[in-house]
From TrEMBL:
GO terms for biological process: cell redox homeostasis; cellular response to oxidative stress. Thiol-specific peroxidase that catalyzes the reduction of hydrogen peroxide and organic hydroperoxides to water and alcohols, respectively. Plays a role in cell protection against oxidative stress by detoxifying peroxides and as sensor of hydrogen peroxide-mediated signaling events. The lineage of its organism: Bacteria, Pseudomonadati, Pseudomonadota, Alphaproteobacteria, Rhodobacterales. It comes from Sulfitobacter guttiformis. This is thioredoxin-dependent peroxiredoxin. GO terms for cellular component: cytoplasm.
């Protein structure tokens, strides 16, 4: 997992609405990447709606915000339409980005272990380095905390 002050792992992924997003092409502006386990689950829906509701505030602070999961673009498109999401979602169907950021982890639920995405958020400074990392995110209050960190850059 990349640490604070290290360069953020670069990637190019497809984005909802069409096209691709390449992280290095966004240098010069802060970037928020929020990794979440799966589209249309309760916590993931609340988090995505929260970032969508505050997207104008992030943009006013000069930041770009993207949600990332291993869901396909087709699932992302349905998720966006169902909940009127405005935050762009990236599809890491191959899993290379979730692995590069160290969020593809072993999880345990009801005594069963499996691999999955740990809910985590990375704030990348305008120079492409990791400015802040939130691991094992709890959704209530998280969007506001990230927005405060962006404003403090």
């Amino acid at each position: 997992m990349p640490e604070i002050s290290e360069n953020a792992p670069d990637f190019t992924l497809p984005v909802t609405g069409g096209g691709d997003v390449t992280l290095t092409a966004l240098k010069g502006a802060p970037v928020v990447l929020f990794f979440y386990p799966r589209d249309d689950t309760p916590g993931c829906t609340k988090e995505s709606i929260g970032f969508s509701a505050q997207l104008a505030e992030f943009e006013a602070a000069g930041a770009k915000v993207f949600g990332i999961s291993r869901d396909t673009m087709a699932k992302h498109d349905k998720f966006v339409a169902k909940h009127d999401l405005t935050v762009p979602l990236l599809s890491d169907a191959e899993g290379t980005v979730t692995e590069a950021y160290g969020v593809w982890v072993e999880k345990s639920m009801y005594g069963k272990t499996s691999m999955g995405i740990e809910r985590a958020t990375f704030l990348i400074a305008s120079d492409g380095t990791i400015a802040q990392v939130w691991r094992k995110v709890k959704v209530p209050g998280h969007v506001e905390e990230v927005l405060d960190a962006v404003r403090a850059l």
